[in-house]
Amino acid sequence: MKALVWHGLGDIRLDDVADPQIEQPTDAVINLTASAICGTDLHFIRGTFSGMQAGTILGHEGVGIIEELGDEVRNFEKGDRVVVCSTVSCGVCPPCRAGHTAQCDNANPNGPEAGTCFFGGPQATGPVNGLQAEKARIPYAANTLVKIPDGVSDDQAILISDIFPTAWFGAELADITRGDIVVVFGCGPVGQFAIASALLMGAARVIAVDKHQDRLAMARRQGAFVINFEREDPVAAIKKLTGGTGADCAIDAVGVDSMHAHHGPASAEAEQKAEKFEQEVKQVAPQTNVQDGNWVPGDAPTQALEWAISTLKKAGRLSIIGVYPPTAEVFPIGKAMNKNLTMKMGNCNHHTVIPHLLELTRAGVIDPVKVLTKIEPMSDVLNAYKAFDKREPGWIKTELKPHA
Ligand SMILES: [Zn+2]
Ligand SMILES: [Zn+2]
Question: What is the pLDDT of residue 378?
Answer without folding.
Answer: 98
